[in-house]
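REQUEST FORM: STRUCTURE PREDICTION
Request ID: SP-0412
Submitted by: Lab K.M.
Chain count: 1
Length (residues): 654
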Amino acid sequence: MDKRYHDRLDVRTALTGGDVVGLFGRALGYLWPERRLVAARAGLMVLIYGLGLPLPWFLKVLIDHGVMQRAIPVGGEGLLYPVFMNGFLDSAAGMDPLAVTIYALAVLAVLFLFVGYSGNTLLEANLAEGADVATRSENKISAGASVAHGLVGFVDLCLAIRLSQRITHRVRESLFSRLSRQPLTSLNLQRSGDAMFRVMHDAPSIAGISYALTLSPLAMVVSVGANLWVLTAVYGRVAPELVWIGFSAVGLTLVATSPLARWARRASQTSRASGSATTNELEEGFRNVAAVQSLGGTERQRDQFAAASRESFRQSLLLVWVANVVEWIAENVHLVFATAGFWVIFTGIVRGELTLGDTPVVLRMYSLLYETAMQFGRIWIDQQDNAAAARRVFFSMDHQVEPRAASRRPRELRWSEPLTLRFEGVGFHYPDGRRALEAVSFEARTGQTLAIVGPSGAGKTTLAEMTPKFLHPTEGRITLNGVDLAHLDTAALRRAVAYVFQEHQLLSGTVAANLRLAKPDADIGDMESACRLAGALDFVRAMPDGFGSRIGRGGGALSTGQKQRLSIARGLLRGAPILILDEPTAALDPETERALLESLSASREHRLTIVIAHRLSTIERADRIIYLDQGRIVETGTHAELMARNGAYRRANS
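STATUS: Completed
RESULT:
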């Protein structure tokens, strides 16, 4: 994959024909939960084509027995009509031409009310769209089409839209769940713009595949089968060539367009990758707009986005060009067969074997055969675009996610009891081979405050992120009350850990919504208590709507110190037995810091607190301090003990 498209995980994008078949089979699995809707649509399709069969025959009645004034004999003897027209012919026998015309028009009006001119019309839900993948995918979300107009066509269209929406919703929900459960090491490599593109624009392809490989061929088979049956029954001895022309068109289209399948897949994959790269540039540009402006990089960022956008449009244009080449081949193949079909029809009329009224019948039936044959022959080609998108969806679904536990039956702990956290020879290295920790061993208990210090890049945050299983040891093990974390349920463990990140993770909603992320049932009293401990209550009360005030994207309406205090308040509100604070006082003034540390110290009896910090004032009250350097524990002890030595800790704080 071209490095311009930012992919770091999904780099092997080539698909073989066998891969495509496997993707199609997997996509069809999403139909089973919606089997009732599928069955309803299949039944409606059969009904639509059934009601549509008599339509051209009433045109024959109007021409032959209305305009040309040919009499309808009793029993329809000597006339070329299918058996389903016998009832009408019997009831119209002996009528004068005007009465036959009115009668036929009345029946046509009823049929049109229900199905319109079914088979040759298309009722669609599509809105205006561009040539790029993203805008076209918006139509796929609520894709729907019916070959009928009228009441039945409207019901069929609604069912089609509902089916597309349900399948797409199910795929999106599953894909989002899998992406959000990937390990931090993967999430740090996967850019959020690409993930958004997969959820929003690639996911609808599954519904497109499901329809194209089931209901669409069913409709084609019913249409072709019904029309060939009628043609054979009525005109089998007069124009049997029409049957062979239809079948030949299908075969030749498949032979002529199949070599382009791989080309179409490649063009679609590249178009989607370049589109997600554009989304990446857009997302990162807005997320880091302050840094870009402060460093004078606005024009450079604009140029990068413009380049990504141009590349996206170039690849979209290439995809359109490939699709048009396929269209051109299919149209020219069928032009030959259309010419042959029209020759059969008109020579039959000239020879007197067909009447003038047979013209609209044969033209309509042949038109249906021609269009259906072309559609049937293009199914494989048309689905290559969806195959490229489905590959991206299933890649993300199949990518490694955080294991719930190492065993099928995770161990349980009584979180209300005192906890003992133990690191035993823990080591960790990232997928790219960088080592972050080596042979780390220590113990901490409920009621203690453990401080982790050391120079930047020493592995402090890596060590802390192992407690809630954001990262997993590559050597050694971590235990809680003697139970390996690997054997504990991940969700249960994280409910027992409140982690306050160094980078403020705030939502764009209200203060209350951000706090309730930690405790959904928290009332105002709970939130006030947590904010008071974190030194956030005064500024929250001073906001226009108090806890109901909106804080903007990422807390943009707050100062850095206010963001930090609100994040700490959220961690305290959780009431978890383990509290981890990553640089909790970096943006706090000395007075606020002192008040926070006193609050934490006073309420630590039933909690294990782990603090990562650089400030001496933050760590000197800790019960135990671990000094890390280059991933190894260099020193450990209390502040007084470490300052009494002439070691790394004392040198760092001198």
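NOTES: Residues 298-350 form the longest helix (53 residues).
Reviewed by: T.R.
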